[in-house]
Amino acid sequence: MASIEKRKTKDGKTIYRAKIRLKGFPEQNASFERLTDAKRWVQQTESAIREGRHFKTTEAKRRTLGEMIDRYIKDILPSKPKNQKNRSLHLNWWKSELGKYTLADITPPIICEHRDKLAKVTTTRGTLRSPSTVVRYMAALSHAFTVAVNEWQWLDNSPMRKVTKPQEPRGRVRFLSDEERIRLLTACKESDSPYLYITVVLALSTGGRRMEILGLHWQDIDLTRGIITLHETKNGQRRALALTGHALELMKTHAKIRRVNCDLVFPGKNQKKPVDVRTPWENALKRAEITDFKWHDLRHSCASYLAMNGASLAEIAEILGHKTLQMVKRYAHLSDSHVSKVVASMNSKIFG
Description:
The protein is mainly alpha-helical.
């Protein structure tokens, strides 16, 4: 039910006070200088309420982007421990830039403007953000908007849906040549760190990520079966790493000198956190005279060696823990000879 009252203000002006009362909904009020505007508002608002659109719009005008980010960090991020620190950092950047805007005022053009700013403004390290980094900033904000739309119903639609992400570069394929591998392993053996050589060998032989290896607990390792079980992985699925050959022998030797009252396989000084091998790793790279190589490239090296030794893309994906083949297609060219043999075998069978 709607009503419009004509009133006089203290300075003698005429205003029209519109009211809408619908069962099951809060009362809505608005004042207008013209009767036609009041009638139009009543008609549009009643329709929006009945169709479930009005209160979302009201929330979008009342809530700010800063409020949305604060609630997301408080209520949603704790349930997503992986990369929580970086995601919080990304969201707080958006808050510092656009936090005072109401959600209704956050439009695709505004987001695009700040997307471009992310890519052009130098960081505290004096470098520009890569397209991949900009995409991660955008992904954090996008998920916050998705939650605000679907769960909190603060908006009807996410403005991120109309914003284009920067084009990310093709996946990096940097792997160690035979000569580089020998030089690196030699340098790691000579390191002051007692854990550098064995962790590098594990990364090369299993394809495990840096923190998957450094964060290992003894309860995750079955030396009898030669299996490492990863309970916490990037894609959220439990994964097994095969321990064989030199890596298995190293782990058996290492198990004989494990620390008492510490379940970490590679503990740091306080035995509560994994060891930090960044400095020993960088020093080993310098001694081995290897450039343009990161720890994660050990994982690429493992995948590349698998491809060159006849493993299929599906097998590589399973070993590395990728849900789809998309991420391992970068290694396809390394298995060309294997594919050629398969095709040749098929042709010889059907054509003789």
